[in-house]
Specification:
Radius of gyration: 20 Å
Structural class: mainly alpha
Shape: flat
Order of helices and strands: HHHHHEEHHHEH
Number of strands: 3
Strand order of the largest sheet: 1-2-3
Largest sheet: 3 strands, antiparallel
Helix content: over 70%
Strand content: 5-15%
Length: about 160
């Protein structure tokens, strides 16, 4: 998943432009460009100030918080996708069903690892789990869409 997708989606929402239109594409392109420039500026500033702020990264609170950074990032992106199931004039009905197998697999795996005493090992594998579970979620959603359990309909049909 592209990390610039929320920037483009938010820009089109704020300007009330539809995706796949010339105006929407222009707004999304400018938003992604500005976001990329801001990322470069922040990284440059961090590189210049690295020697001054490096003691902050040694604090116990920061070390603890850094372990939650990747799950929080992907969690916030997922929440944004689940909170709004509309895209332009289309709405996804039953989209959460495609992610349920991933949630179940990860819950069972996490509980089993913690009960077996390997809970700390899972913390270092969060990025790998995300990469492995993405195709499972996509495949499940595709199969459920083909079976008609997940539908993409016009906004008027949902209401």
């Amino acid at each position: 998943m592209n990390l610039k997708l929320p920037v483009a989606a938010n820009a089109m929402n704020l300007t009330q432009k539809q995706p796949n239109t010339p105006e929407g594409e222009a707004i999304a392109s400018v938003a992604v460009a500005v976001s990329s420039l801001m990322t470069i500026a922040i990284l440059t500033l961090a590189a210049v100030c690295a020697s001054f702020i490096s003691p902050v990264f040694e604090l116990p609170a920061v070390k603890t918080a850094s372990g939650y950074l990747l799950p929080a990032l992907f969690g916030s992106m997922a929440l944004g996708l689940f909170a709004s199931s509309s895209s332009g004039s289309k709405v996804v009905k039953g989209g959460i069903k495609g992610v349920l197998p991933v949630l179940i697999i990860m819950t069972v795996l996490s509980l089993a690892a913690r009960l077996a005493g390997y809970g700390s090992v899972l913390g270092g594998l969060v990025g790998i789990f995300i990469i492995v579970m993405l195709p499972i979620g996509i495949l499940t959603s595709y199969v459920l869409w083909k079976k008609g359990k997940i539908q993409v309909v016009d906004k008027e049909q949902k209401e």
